[in-house]
Amino acid sequence: MRGMRYVSTRGGGEPLPFCATVLTGLARDGGLFLPEAIPDVRDRLAAWSQLSYPALAYEILRLYADDVPAAALRDMIDRSYATFRAPEVTPVVAAGDVQILELFHGPTLAFKDVALQFLGNLFEHILARTGGELNIVAATSGDTGSAAIHGVRGRRRMRIFVLHPQGRVSPMQERQMTSVLDANVHNLAVGGTFDDCQNIVKALFNDLAFRDRYHLGAVNSINWARVLAQIVYYFYAAFRVQERTGARRVRFSVPTGNFGDIFAGFVAQRMGLPIDRLVLATNENDILARFFDTGVYQTGAVAPTLSPSMDIQVASNFERYLYYRANGGARQVSRWMAEFQLAGRLVLPAGDDLIRAGRCDTAATLATIRKYWTAHRYLLDPHSAVGVYVAGQHLDPSAPMICLATAHPAKFGDAIRQAIGEDLAHHPILDALAALPTRCARLPADRAAVAGWIETSISGSPA
Asked: What distance in Å separates the CA atoms of residue 296 and residue 349, rounded to the nearest whole number?
């Protein structure tokens, strides 16, 4: 029987099995991979609700990763989540009117660890099987870089090159990346915005000759495995909250810039998880919120904020959402993306039955951090505060609101001091970074400069 296959949002190429999809990352026609069909699991929800996080992850991932042997999949899941400091992996705690899904108990204290610990083990498994090597090229607005680095540092057959916008990530985020000195880790500070970094990465992947010659791989959320691993915590959180409250349906509020995290919830809902509403929360860089309010998807200047991981204008995973808006019409998606690339603007009918959106500016972010500390003794990082603030506009007593807490507040100590007036946000892992040496190259926001640096580095070091 034919297993799960993956297709490009733009319709090019033959459908691929899971492992080939993971290694390919970005489809060769420039599109993003999606499964040919999303499994309906409504008949399994009751049984799944009693599972531990690793056991639940196995049940969900095996539906999509059916070319990975069952024993190998169980092993890599167990090893991935053994690195987390919370027994539940992603615990849910109540705070006022909302439930907080804590996604920051992994090695780098950010939600990206949930997917990237798994992806590092998955890459290692596939490369051991094929005998190949992989040069991972990634752009980060803050947390993806450190989580990806910690997922692949020291691993054989892999190098990683992480581009971050110079001076536009938090000092702690920068130190988490640049203090990792393993020979297979390369940090590049690019003189520009995250969108500049992301555009360079996409250009390198779309240069098929360069991509093939240097065996490029992706860990950004353009890689389907990133989204897949994040689907799990939507199920896990919904089960925990339903058990506590007896609610039949739940809502999720998701702070997002690149649309990857909320797209995982979109897939979970299509699988049959009873999600009543997905609330999309942005900071001042509100291209996504504006789209869901008006139907206009239009770029603007990037505004630096207290939540730098969301300081993005072009959301990579939005193309996956457009594929479903087009009812799987890849030609329509290709036309939309060509129009957007040419004009920086795309107009669709406004509204979505599932997704609502809102914006939280700097003043509201600080006020939300202060409010939740004062009233509930719960400390939110600025990204999570954006999600909690916008969630407050979409509460419904019949559907508990689950807010994704995407990073530990200690990663954003300056914002916490600004909000509360006290130096409360610390974590021993982060405090220990202050004395460590760092290594980082500085490059202009130029594709050729980055490509040349990668070429030189690969030729000078074995994988």
From this structure: 8
Nearest partner of 403 among 309, 299, 281, judged by Cα:
281
CA end-to-end distance (rounded Å), the chain: 37
For residue 66, the model assigns a pLDDT of 97
| Sequence spans of domains, the chain | 92-109+225-427
Number of H helices, E strands in the chain: 19, 15
* 3-state secondary structure at position 181: coil
pLDDT of the residue at 22 = 97
Cα-based angle 230, 232, 237 (whole degrees, multiple of 5):
110
Query: How far apart (Å, rounded) are the C-alpha atoms in residues 367 and 306?
Result: 12
Does domain 92-109+225-427 sit in CATH 1.50.10.140? no
Across the range 55-77, mean pLDDT stands at 98
pLDDT exceeds 90 at position 143: no
Q: Using CA atoms, how far apart are residues 218 and 225, in angstroms rounded to an integer?
A: 10
pLDDT surpassing 70 at residue 463: no
At 449, is the pLDDT very low, low, confident or very high (cuts 50, 70, 90)?
very high
Q: How does residue 172 score in pLDDT terms, banded at 50, 70 and 90?
A: confident
Sole residue written with tokens 């026609």: 29
Given this model, what pLDDT does residue 1 score? 57
Residue 462 in this model has a pLDDT that exceeds 80: no
CA 204 – CA 211 distance, rounded (Å): 7
Residue 297, SS3 per DSSP: strand
Active site residues: 112
**CA-based nearest residue to 201, from 285, 334, 314, 96:** 314
Letter for the amino acid at 1? Answer: M
Q: How far apart are CA 135 and CA 246, in angstroms?
A: 47
Chain-centre distance of CA 142, in angstroms?
11
Which ranges of 16-52 would DSSP assign to H, the alpha helix? 18-24, 45-48
What's the CA gap between 102 and 109, in Å, rounded? Answer: 10
H/E element holding 319? Answer: helix 318-325
Averaged pLDDT for residues 376-380: 98
> What's the chain's length in residues?
463
pTM (predicted TM-score): 0.95
